[in-house]
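Here's a chain:
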Amino acid sequence: MRLAVTSVGRLFGTNGIRGRFGSELTVDFAVKIALAIGTYFNQGEILVGHDGRLSSPALKDAVVSGLLASGCNVVDAGMMPTPALQFGVKHFKYDGGVMITASHNPPEFNGIKVVGPDGIEVSRSEEVKIETIFFEEKIRRAAWNEVGKIKEAPDVISAYIDAVISHVNVKRIAAQNFKVVVDPGNGVSALTVPKVLRRLGCQVIPVNDAVDGRFPGRGPEPTPAALKGVAEVVRASKADLGASYDGDGDRAIFTDELGVVHWGDKSGAIIEKHLLKRAGGGIIVTPVSSSKLIEEVALAHGGKVVWTKVGSVTVSHVLKEVSGLLGIEENGGVFYPPHQLVRDGAMTTALILEIMAERGEKLSKLVGELPKYYNVKLKVACPNELKRNVIEKIEAAIREEGKVLKIETIDGVKAWIDDYTWVLIRASGTEPIIRVYAEAKKEERAEEIAEAYKVKVAQIIKSLGG
């Protein structure tokens, strides 16, 4: 078996273990890695959930079997969004959790996320411990009379929905009678977000709301290009907001009332500004792929930014370490610590609605108040085994050209062309691709830079035989 993840760890990538089901991520592998996970949790009680992918039930059963065989007890949470599972682990005080999901990856992929007792995916160092158990065959296999037991979970989803709602001003939101186009993208946020919004007094207009592991509506990743149909529904229905989610519901991308889709660093910056003003300052944690506007908003309101590698696991753990006010990802991930230290699409939506209600403003107005930057995000197919070499060569080429202001290597290569313009080239930790991000004060300039570096990356991959 060769997993589709090699750039971060031997098994674990940016967000768990992922691969194409049946070839890279098999049922046999799932049983063995679950034995290793169960050994790591040392006969603990583990909450297990899964998303709506067609392969998820098979993988879940395999994982449950491995956990039971290691001596762990399993609490079966069924189908639910990742943030609901994470909330359930901490709220009901389980020893850990396992979520079967590949988030935004294409439907043929699936994955396994391991969650610690604090509801956060286990840290990189803990992932290494699980990998060591796996590769060195230090697996605990329970005797016939020590095999774990399985039971159904309590109503995790209801408890989770109650928790989201408890963190916002329900009366203020309900008074606005917001009309919201909710687009789960055929993912599992369909099980939670509509219920949250109806309890907040919103009129819900559902789109792509049938859970379907083939993701027939617009795919599992909510990019502006994929959300053109949602934007049309928002305009046609005269809705106040469109809210779209990735496959497992931990990220939200918003469409304003004019039908303009905004990347997550804009919606994140709106929440950041609101919280910094309320708290009088604080630490904002965000990956190097995020817009410079995050830093500008922080500086303008007494805040400080801590930049990290890309990946929600890293953001969560750094946010916890520094007692941060908020975590933000450009892909729509928002980490609100009073709720939980992980990204959560439903919580993000509730916060945006609360801010709109308190300010009495449309989303377009709130976005319009932010510093203006334009972002372009492209990707280039790249075999996993070539990723490291490609990044090394593109960094060497950029340094040799000597045309940039500075170079940062927190994650991949980020080259600053001037104080307001940058390009980031990094290897995806979840797919066999190289990602190219560019930002500038003018849209045309961002597009030009991104396309130029996409060509350079493609040429390097070709030269390496990819």
Remarks:
- The longest helix spans residues 443-463.
